[in-house]
Amino acid sequence: MTAMLSHSFKLVTIIAEPVLEGRITQELRQLGATGFTVLEGRGQGSRAIHAAEIPGNNVRIETIVSADVADRIIEHVAAAYFTQYEVIAYVADVQVIRGDKYRSTPNAKEVR
Asked: Pick from 79, 78, 43, 84: which is nearest to 60 by CA?
């Protein structure tokens, strides 16, 4: 693989309660993500084992987006979920092939 084939993007990862999956994935599209991957997972964090009364495993939602879309997603997730839900989010730099698959649509808008 040569460097000319790869494109710089951001990988946004959101780990959330399972009941939030549909809401968050819909919002990702509205914020400019062209797609996402959802995985179920278990783990342990700073507050020890997941203690929510909501059944099911947490979901790990990943999307690859441009830097500006990543900023929009993180700002939205922080404002909408951090105080009321068990949600974490982080961003990492990634290099992707076929960069055109990850460019956001011009219809992306702010989500409330």
From this structure: 43
Q: What is the pLDDT of residues 2-49, one digit of tens each?
A: 557 899 999 999 999 999 999 999 999 999 999 999 999 887 776 655
- Please identify which residue in the block is written with the tokens 């441009």: 66
**C-beta of residue 55 within 8 angstroms of C-beta of residue 70:** no
Q: Are 59 and 23 in contact (CB under 8 A)?
A: no
- Residue type at position 96: V
Place of tokens 């809401």: 23
∠ CA 9-65-42, rounded to 5° = 105
State the average pLDDT over residues 93-110. Answer: 78
Give the C-alpha distances (Å, rounded to integers) separating 82 from 15, 18, 74, 85: 11, 15, 10, 6
| pTM of the predicted model over 0.90 | no
Distance CA 58, CA 37 (A): 14
Kind and range of the H or E element at 81? helix 67-81
